[in-house]
Structure formats: structure tokens, C-alpha cells
Amino acid sequence: MKLITRNTDYALQALCYLSKHREVVTVDELVKKLGVPRPFMRKILQRLNKERILGSYKGQGGGFKLAVPPAKIFIIKIMRIFQGKVGLNGCFLKKDICPNKGRCVLRKKIHAIENNVVKQLREINIAALI
User: Fold this and answer.
1) Domain segments of the chain as ranges
2) pLDDT per residue of the chain (130 residues) written in tens, 0 to 9
3) DSSP state at residue 56
4) What whole-number distance in Å separates Cα of residue 37 and Cα of residue 92?
5) How many CA atoms lie within 13 A of 67 on its CB side?
6) Cα 35–Cα 40–Cα 45 angle in degrees, nearest 5
7) Structural contact between residues 27 and 65, judged by C-beta atoms closer than 8 angstroms
8) Which class in CATH covers the domain with range 6-129?
């Protein structure tokens, strides 16, 4: 099980880089500095732009720049953008309908762990990572 997917990881790297540089940064610069494949980086930046975390600038000298201060960009939000709801609590039997769902002791314990993980992730922002 991976808590953070590849796209989320790339997005966090890009956001940290953009936070450090504060000016408009080209896709090519991000690809070169971070070693992320160009198609992935473009899709990630476009998605962050759509979510209004980044601003995009066209033309000569164009690229992307943070639209939100690093202290207001939390990891949990980036994870939800690229991964959906953070969840650790899928049944290990991989069944859609589990007859023990309401009384499963393991499920309750994992749910408590999941809540703690989400709480911790809500407190980590990009500013803390740079």
C-alpha cells in the first residue's frame, strides 16, 4: 500500500520548487530540475492550475507560479486532488459487501489509524516542507 502516489509526489516536489523560486517557472525548468517526465509534469501543473493552486502565464517567459501562499497549501488537499479520499480502510478480503462490516474489530482499529493519519496530514503544509 502506498500512502502517496507518484502524481502526488511529483505535485509536492513541483510545489516546493515553485515555493522556493516565487517567480514564473517554465515546465522545462521543472522537468530538468526535478527529473520528472514532461507529460506527467504538464498534467500535474494543469490540474493544480485548474484547482487554483497555481496560476499559468502564456507567451514568452510564461509558465506557472503559486497562486496561494505555501503556508496555505496542505498535503491532504494535494493528496485529495490526485488520489481522491485518503483511505486505508479497505477490506483485506477485497469484497464489496462484507457481512462483518459493522462489527469487524480490525476495521475499527484501522479506521482509528486512518483518522490519525488524516489529522496529521491536515497539519503539514508546503511551507513546512521547504
Assistant:
1) 6-129
2) 578 899 999 999 999 999 998 889 999 999 999 999 999 999 999 999 999 999 999 988 889 999 999 999 999 999 999 998 877 666 555 555 566 666 778 878 888 888 898 899 999 999 999 9
3) E
4) 34
5) 14
6) 100
7) no
8) mainly alpha
Spatial contact of 62 and 26, defined as CB atoms under 8 Å apart = yes
Grid cell 522545462 is found at: 28
Residue 23 DSSP label: S
Cell 497562486 belongs to: 67
Q: Which three cell numbers mark 41? A: 509534469
Q: Rounded distance, CA 22 to CA 60, Å?
A: 18
Q: Which three cell numbers stand for residue 32?
A: 530538468
